[in-house]
Amino acid sequence: MVEDITGFQEIINMIEERRHNAYRKVNEEMIFLYWDIGKYVTEKIKQDNWGSKTVENLAAYIKNKYPTLKGFNRAGIYRMKQFYETYCEFPEIVSTLLRQINWSNHVEILSKVKTIEAKKFYIALSIKEQYSARELSRQIRSGYYERYMISKNAPFSQKLLINETEIPNSRFLDIYSFEFLNLPLEHSEKDFRKAIMVNFKKFILEIGKSFTFIGEEYRIQVGGEDFYIDLLFYNRDLSCLVAFELKIGAFAPEYISKMDFYLEALDRQVKKEHENPSVGIILCTNRNKEVVKYSMNRSMSPTLVSEYQVKLIDTKILEHKLKEIKEYVEESKMVD
């Protein structure tokens, strides 16, 4: 008698679903516990003049009651206080976002992210991408928020990601950081492509987990001739094929016509009827914006030209650029 293993898998699916739901519920309760403790300590400091010694005594008391309980030392309790004080004036975050990521991710955001706008961004991004604390830490160190906000495909909004229809990390960036490839400043296009394949998980973290890999040096045939796209992906959020061309120097106008050719071939031969037109991403080490503008002015294909860096970008430079954009937006509002 042949056993019905399909039924077995359904049981496994039930188990995994309940385990996930149980973990999510436990996480929600822990987050609200830390919130309530943070609120209590904040109010006691204001009303009853609790000082650092009182908080130390509280930590010692908890340790005596629960010797194996972690996270309730003096530093941990003050972190809960910071947690409450950071978000207590933003009910839309408290009601919809805070409970959806774990405490380790909250600690990363609280300790490493400066503005409330950036904190909202990283919370929403963590929810969408299901980041581990290590993955989230990398995104913060690489200045992902600042790079996202200064990209032309991400219009600036002070209310970013709160009740926003756009999904975080479904847009393309003007600047990508590939420090994890460990490439020297002088490298070939082949070195670039091979380094991506070796560090593929980290590459997906940078471009977005909605990307599904299709092929390296993906072959298309036109007129009996073979042509090869460096990297081909499918983006689930955008429902389209995405072709990446890797260039190690400055942007050149002829890259656009080559990408137009690739996208036309993909749309005719590979794209399914229900999918959106294919998108092209040309990655260059640098680009002259005026040259890019002129090159793309007559092109009808959805192609973007982005810079990439093989070293971590100084976040102070990114913060300064973002500040300039904010000031420009505010000045434009005043003129209007």
Write structural notes for this entry.
With 336 residues, this protein is α/β, with parallel strands linked by helices. Helix content is 54%, strand content 14%. It contains 13 helices and 6 strands. Strands 1-6-5-4-3-2 form a 6-stranded mixed β-sheet, sandwiched between helices. It is globular, with a radius of gyration of 24 Å.
Outline the fold blueprint.
Elements: H1 5-47, H2 52-65, H3 74-87, H4 91-96, H5 103-112, H6 116-129, H7 133-141, H8 144-150, E1 175-177, H9 189-198, H10 200-207, E2 211-222, E3 225-235, E4 240-246, H11 254-269, E5 279-284, H12 289-296, E6 303-309, H13 315-335
Parallel strand pairs: 1-6, 4-5, 5-6
Antiparallel strand pairs: 2-3, 3-4
Helix pairs in contact: 1-3, 5-6, 5-7, 8-13
Main beta-sheet strand count, sense and barrel state: 6 strands, mixed
Beta-strand content estimate:
5-15%
Which radius of gyration do the C-alpha atoms yield? Answer: 24 Å
SS elements, strand count: 6
Task: Compute the average pLDDT.
Answer: 87
Structural class by SSE content: alpha/beta
How are strands sequenced across the largest beta sheet?
1-6-5-4-3-2
Shape: globular
The end-to-end span amounts to 78 Å
User: SSE string, helix = H, strand = E?
Assistant: HHHHHHHHEHHEEEHEHEH
